[in-house]
Structures are given as C-alpha cells and as structure tokens.
Amino acid sequence: RKPIVAVVGRPNVGKSTFFNRIAGKRISIVEDTPGVTRDRVYADCEWLNYKFTMIDTGGIEPNSSDVILAQMRDQAQIAIDTADVIIFLCDGKYSYTAADEEIAQMLRISKKPVLLVLNKIDVYHKPDHFYDYYTLGLGDPLLISSANALGLGDLLDEVVKCF
Ligand code: GDP
Ligand code: MG
C-alpha cells in the first residue's frame, strides 16, 4: 500500500493551508466513522515518483480549550496509529507552547519518523526561537511558509526519505 503521511499540530498553525498546498485539488472529505470524533481529509500525493496518501487530522475546530487539548491528543494518536511518517507543524512565528511539548512527547514515544516543521516563516530567516525547538527532541526543525509556498520541496524531500 501507499505510505501514509499525517499532518498534526495545534489549531491555527496552518495544517489545512499546508495540506491544500500539497494536495492541490485532489481532496476528498471522508465522513465521520462511528467512534471517531472528527472528519479526516485525505489526498493522494506524489513527489519525485513517490506516491503517498496525506491526512489532515484536524478537520473540526473546537472552541473550548479542553476540547482542543483532547482533540490534539486524539489527532496525535490517529497519526501515530495510522501514519508511516508524521509532519508535526508548529507556528514558527513563536516559540513552542506547552501543548506542542505534549504532542512532541507522544510522538517521541511512538518511535515513528517525525518531521518537526515551523510554518509561517514567510521570509526566509532563522528566528531567535528556532533553537528553542531543539528542546522538543525531534531533531532539526524545517522552515516553511505554506502561505508563500517556501520550503515545501525541501520538506517533501525529507518526507520521501523516510519511506
Ligand atoms: P489549521 O487550524 O492548523 O488547519 O490552520 P489553517 O490552515 O486554518 O491556518 C490558520 C491561519 O494561519 C489562517 O489564517 C492561515 O491563513 C494562516 N497561515 C497558514 N499558513 C501560513 C503561513 O505560512 N504564513 C502566514 N503568515 N499565515 C499562515
Ligand atoms: Mg485545519
């Protein structure tokens, strides 16, 4: 079967923007299956002759912070259970948050290949808080801008190296 790449991260870090950039128009929305609390969005993708399926795990935007935390744990768990490679998207405009640390810990324990990605780096530079992200124990952060389509090719190169 094709490898599965899952995108996880807090609400508003740009997961859907990133996903839509990579997926183009070939997106299908899959209805909730019983016991799963949210829609997932799948897309067939291709990079350098590698075919894979990408999942945007954050289909619903809850508005209570308890629900958000619970959803992020569910998201990370779905990614851990189903994905071959996990893209952990953070808001590169800022340092990491407590919620980022919590997701990072789940991802580290899983032993799955994880790419730590700082989104919203709209003009290429390493922000001062770039180095903070090493504390998450997930290796070198990659810098992208989903809005401006910067760094996406380098990220996809790293994704397919994990297959
Ligand atoms: P999600 O909740 O993680 O799926 O995040 P969204 O994709 O819905 O994006 C949340 C907000 O961040 C939106 O206002 C996007 O336009 C914005 N956004 C996403 N990617 C970028 C980026 O690379 N740069 C900037 N400046 N804003 C972005
Ligand atoms: Mg989204």
Automatic annotation (TrEMBL):
<comment type="subunit">
    <text>Associates with the 50S ribosomal subunit.</text>
</comment>
<feature type="binding site">
    <location>
        <begin position="56"/>
        <end position="60"/>
    </location>
    <ligand>
        <name>GTP 1</name>
    </ligand>
</feature>
<feature type="domain" description="EngA-type G">
    <location>
        <begin position="3"/>
        <end position="163"/>
    </location>
</feature>
<protein>
    <recommendedName>
        <fullName>GTPase Der</fullName>
    </recommendedName>
</protein>
<comment type="function">
    <text>GTPase that plays an essential role in the late steps of ribosome biogenesis.</text>
</comment>
<feature type="binding site">
    <location>
        <begin position="119"/>
        <end position="122"/>
    </location>
    <ligand>
        <name>GTP 1</name>
    </ligand>
</feature>
<comment type="similarity">
    <text>Belongs to the TRAFAC class TrmE-Era-EngA-EngB-Septin-like GTPase superfamily. EngA (Der) GTPase family.</text>
</comment>
<feature type="binding site">
    <location>
        <begin position="9"/>
        <end position="16"/>
    </location>
    <ligand>
        <name>GTP 1</name>
    </ligand>
</feature>
